[in-house]
Queue: 4 jobs
Job 1
Amino acid sequence: MRLPQTYSGNVFIYSSDDYASSKAVIYGMPMDYTVSFRPGSRFGPGRIREASVGLEEYSPYLDKSIEDLVYFDAGDLLLPFGNAAKSLDIIADYVRGLLNDDKIPVGLGGEHLVSWPVIREVYKKYPDLAVIHIDAHADLREHYEGEPLSHSTPIRKAAELMGGVNIYQFGIRSGSKEEWTYAKEKGIHFHPFDVAEPLKKELPSLAGRPVYVTIDIDVLDPSAAPGTGTTEAGGITSKELLEAVHAIARSGVNVVGFDLVEVAPIYDPTEMTPIVASKIIREMLLGFV
C-alpha cells in the first residue's frame, strides 16, 4: 500500500479504504513556499476534502455516482516546510510509486510548482504524453527573480522536457511578454482568455493519447473563486470550467493523471473556493477515471 508519510484525517467523499482495488489515488501536496504574492495554498487539500462532504454523490452532468467509483484518498504528503527542492523530490517519489502500481494520480495543491514533478514522472511512463493546462497564468517563466523553482515556471519546465507542441494551454490572461513570445516560438497550443470552446476544437487531435490535466483554480474569475494566491480579473465562470471538464471526459482522450491547485482558503471566508474545487474534483473523478 502506497501511503504517504502523513495522513490528513479527513478524506474526500466516498473514498475507499481499499488501495489495492482503487483505480485512482488522491494525495495532497501542501506546499506554498515559492508563491510570488499570497501564501496559503498549503491548506487547500484539507479544505477541499472538508467541502466535499456537502456534495451530492450523483453527477447529473455525467449521470454517474461517486458511490460507484473505487478510489483511495491517501492524505497529504509530509513535505519539509521551506525546502522546495526536497519537497518536489518527495512528490516525484510518491507519484512514481503510484504509477508503478498502475494507479491514476489525483493531486490536490498546493502551489502550481507541485505539478512539475508529477508531469515529469507521468511523462517517463507515457512518452507520448500531452498536457492540458487550464489557468489564468502562463507559468512559462524560466525563473522568477532568479529562482527557477517557482510557481510561475512549471509549464515552462514541462515544455522543455516534452516539447512545446505537446502543451495545450487555455484561459491564460496574465503573463510577461516573453512568455507569450515563448509560447508562439515553441509551438505551444496557446489559447488565451477562453477555455471551453477552444478546448473542444483541440480535443479531437488528442483522441486516444495519454493526457495529463492540470487546473489552477485562479482560471476562475475572482468573483467565483476569491480564495487563491494570485487572483486575476477577467476569468471564466465555474459553469464554463465544468463544461471544459465534461468536454475532456467525453472526448476519448486517455487521462492518465490530473490535479487541481492553488486553493488558498484563508482568503475566502465564504468557503466558495474550496466548495467549487471539490465539485470540480468530483466531476474529474467521475469523468476521467
Job 2
Amino acid sequence: MPETSVARFYDELADDYHLIYSDWDASIRRQGEVLDALIGQDRAAVLDCSCGIGTQAIGLALRGHSVTGTDLSPRAAARAVREAARRGLSLRTAAADMRRLPFPDARFDTVVCADNALPHLLTEHDVRAALAEMRRVLRPAGLLLISTRPYEDLLRDRPSSTPPQVHRATEGGERTVTFQLWRWHDDGEHYDMEHFQLLPEDGEWRVEVRRTTYWALGQRRLAGLAADAGFVDPEWRMPQETGFFQPLLVARTGE
C-alpha cells in the first residue's frame, strides 16, 4: 500500500469529511448504537484502528466505552480528538498503520475497522499483516468488527461511479455535492477512486478532487483470511439485519 498517498488523501479530506453525511451527528449516534449492540458489554476497551475524524469512535464513546483511535492520517486523528472534546468526551488517538499497531498484546476487548478502510491494503500479504495485528491486540474471546463496501455485488457489476449526494451541513445551510468516479484495473479487483466534493464559496463552487486506490476484497475471501489469522467463526452481517450502513464481518478470538 502506498502509505503516503493514503495518508495524504485523508489528511486533505479531514476538514470536509463530515460533509459527506446528510447529518454527521445523527450518523455518529446511529453507528455507535449499532456497534454497541454488537459489542454487547458495558465499558469495553475498544480500539478503532481506522478512526478517521471519529465517526465510530465518538459514537462508541457516547455509549460509555473506553475508546482508543488510530489512523494513518495524523490530521484526521487530531480532528477526532477535537470533535470528541466538543462533545465532552475523552478520546485517545495516535497516527498509526493498522499493520503495525503500537499496543501490547491482549490490550482490547474489541477492535473496529469500519468505513471500508481495510481495502486500502492492496495485497493479501498486507491484509494478513493487519488481521494478525488486530488478533494480537485482542484479549481472549475478543471481538472483531470490520465493515467494507458490498464487494460481492460490486465485483459483479464493476460500477464506474457513485450517484451524486447533495447535503446541507446545517439546517438551512448551503448545499454541498459529493460523488465518486471509479476506474477498474485490468485485474478486475483493484480500482482507483476519484472523490469529488463541490463546496460553496463566495457564490461560486470550489471543487476538491482527491484520489486513492482500493482492493475490492470479496466477502468470502476476507472471511477466509480472518480465519487464517486465528479468528473464530467469522460471519458477515448485512445492513438489513444490523442497521449499519455497510456489511459487517463479525468474528472472535479463541478463548
Job 3
Amino acid sequence: MKLAVIEGDGVGKEVIPAALRVLDCFDLPLEIIPLELGYGKWEKTGQAITDADLEILKNCDCILFGAVTTPADPNYKSVLLTIRRELDLYANIRPLKPIKGIEGATGNTDFDILVVRENTEGLYSSIEEVGENEAWSKRIITRRASERIAQIACEYAAKRHNHLTIVHKSNVIKADSLFLNTCRNVAQAHNVIHDTMLVDAMAYDMVRSPEKYDVVVAPNLYGDILSDLGGALVGSLGLLPSANIGEKQAFFEPVHGSAPDIAGKGIANPIAAVLSVAMLLDWLDRPEQARIVREAVEASINEDIKTADLGGNFTTEQVTGFLVRYVQSHS
C-alpha cells in the first residue's frame, strides 16, 4: 500500500509530520512516497504540480496532504483542484462533530453532521476567463456527478440516522434543479428520508439548530462554504479533518489552509491533520486504530493540552508528543 505524503506550504510542513508520527505508532505496511507540491515548488520551478507528479499520485493508493498557498496569479495552477479532477476524487467528506471540552461560537455541542460535497465540478470547474472589464467562471452540473455524490451520501445516511438534506439554490440558479432532482431520485431509490434546503437558509439554520441535521449533500461551492462554517460551530478550523474519495483512491487533508501568518512559529494546531489520519485508518478498514486516534485527541483536550487557537498555550510539538504517547500506550 503506497501513501503519498505532501506537506505543502506554511503550517502543512508542521502538521503533516505530526500526523505521520501518530500514524507511525501502528507500524502499518505502508510505503511512504514524499512529494513536493504547492506554492514553494511554484516559486522555484514555475509549476506547483507537474504531469510527472500526477503520475506518481495515480500510482499511489492514498494521499496525506497538508495545505498549500494559492497566490492571486492567473498562471498558478490550483494543486487541489488538479488532484481532485485528475484522480476523480469525486466525494469530499467533512465531519462536523464537537469534541467534548471545546465549545464553538454558539455553545451548541449537540450535533453530528456529515457534509458530503460534490468535488469535481460546479463553480470549481476551472473553466474561467479574466479580462480587464469582464470575468466569468463556468459552472457545470451533470447528472452523472450528481448521481454518484447522492449515492455515496445515501450510503453514509443509511449507516447513520437515514436522513439526508439536499442543499441547492434552484429558485434562482436553474442549473441547481438538475442536482436537486437527481439527488431526490437517488434518495427515493434507497429509501432514505430526505428534505431540501436553499443554501442561504441552510447556513442560517446550521448556526441556529445544527442538531437537526445528519448527512448533508451539496454541490461543490455550497459544500465548501457550509463545511467551513462548521469550523465555527465546533470551535476551530484546526479541528476539522476531511477526505476526498474516489473509486479506488482517497486523499486526506485538514480543512484549514496554509496559515502563513503563523507558519514556522510552532503553534499550529495538529489536530485536524491527526483526525485526517483517523479518517485514513477508517478507509484502510482499521476502525480500532481510528478509534484510538480520536480518543487521543479527546484526551488532549480533556487534559487541557491545547494550542493557542483553542485557548491553550501548548506548542505543536507538545500536543503531538502527548498524542503519540497516548496512542503508543493504548495500541
Job 4
Amino acid sequence: MKLVLLSGGSGKRLWPLSNDSRSKQFLKVLVNEDGEMESMVQRVWRQLNAARLGKSSYLVTGAAQLDILYSQLEDRSRIIIEPERRDTFPAIALAAVYLYSVEGVGLEEVVGILPVDPYVDVDFFEKVIELEDMLQETGADLALIGVKPLHPSEKYGYIVPEEQREHAQSHMNVNFFKEKPSELQAHELIQQNALWNCGVFAFKLGYLIDRLIGSGYPIQYEEMIKQYGLLPKISFDYEIVEKASYTIVTPYDGPWKDLGTWNTLTEEMKSNLLGNAIVTEDSLNTHVINEFEIPIAVIGLSDIVVAASPDGILVADKSKSPRVKDILKDNIQRPMYEERQWGDYRVLDYKPCWEGHEVLIKKIRITAGKGLNYERHLLRDETVIVVSGTGEFTLKGITNIVRSGDVIQIPAGYEHSLKASTDLEYIEVQKGDQLLENDSVPIDIQMLKL
C-alpha cells in the first residue's frame, strides 16, 4: 500500500501565525514525546514511521511550501511538487501518475490519500492499512474512513451510509455525502448513522489511471506536468468520489481532531504560553503565542487567544476565532515571516520611498553549516549588517570571512552568496524600484569555472 499526504492551503483560520508560505501544518506549537516543539507535519511523519509506513508514503505540495518542508522533514526523497496550486483532484491525479510512470507501481496496488495534518494517535494509521484488505475483499471503487461524530458540527462534511444490516460489519456501503450541513441537519444525519468525513480514502491505482485515460488526461508524469494547468480546479470529492459507482466506508471510533482553528489547536497545546508573555491567574483558559521579543500581558481575560507574529496580532474569543478567515478574506499582504531550508527571515519594515523606490528591511538567520545560493538580484541593491555569528561571504568570486559588526554592500547584478560557519544573524536592507522575493538569478558555480 502506498500513502499520499496532501499538503496545501494557507490556513487563514490560524492567522497571524499562518500565511501563504507557513500554513497551519508547519506551526511548531505541539510537543513531542521528548518534550521538543514540533509541527503537525512533523508529528504525522513521525507517526507514519512508527506505524512502519514511512518508506511507502509520499507528500504532494506546491513550490511555495517546498523550502519549509525541506526545513522540517529530513526525508525529502518522496516529495511530489505541483507546478501550480489548483485543488485536490489535480494534486491526487499528479501523485497517481507519478506512482505509475516514475515509481513503476502496479495498477493493482492500493493507494491511500490523507491530509498532512490530522491530529490522531498512531492507531489511526492501522485503520488506514485496513482499507487495503477492504478494497480487495469487496471490489469497491473507493474505501473511506469516517469518524464517529462526537456532536453535531457544521465544520465537517458527512458520509451517510446505507442502512446497516443486523450484524455489525467492518464497513458499510455509502449512500450519499453532505458537505458542511447546518447544526440541525447534522443532528438529523447523525440519527442516520452518518460519519464525519476526515478526508481519508483509498483506491486501486488502476481505478484512477483508467478515469484519467477516460477523461483524456496524460498518464506520463512529464506530460502531466506540462498539462497541469489544464486540469480543472475541482476537489477530488466532487470529481471522483461522488461519481464512483461503489463506495464503502469504515467507521473509526478513536481520537481524531482537525486542528484548523485556534480553539481546537489550543486544546492540544501543552502550555498556555509560548514566547514572551505574562497571563494573570484570573485569566482562565487563555493562550498566548508571541513571536516577538517584546512582552505581551493579559490581565483578567478568560477563554481568549492572543497570537502575535510579523504578519499581525490577533486577540479573539476562542469560540469565535474561526471568523478570522472571513474578516481577512480581502486582506492581501506578502508573508512577513518565512521558514526556509537554510533558516528563516522576518520582515521588520517595508515602505515606499522617494520617486517610486521601495525599502525593505529583513532580519535573517542562517543555521550553522547552511547557506544561500550563489545568485544575483536584478532589481535591487542590498546592504548586509552582520549582527552575530561568523560566515563566508562570496562577492563576484572573492570569498571573505564575515563576523559581527561587518557591513557589506551588494549592488544589483553582483553575484554573491553567504554560508554560515556558526549560527549567523544579520539585517538586510533592500532598495530598488520593485522588491520581489523571486528577484534571484541562480549562478552555476561549476559553469563559472569552465
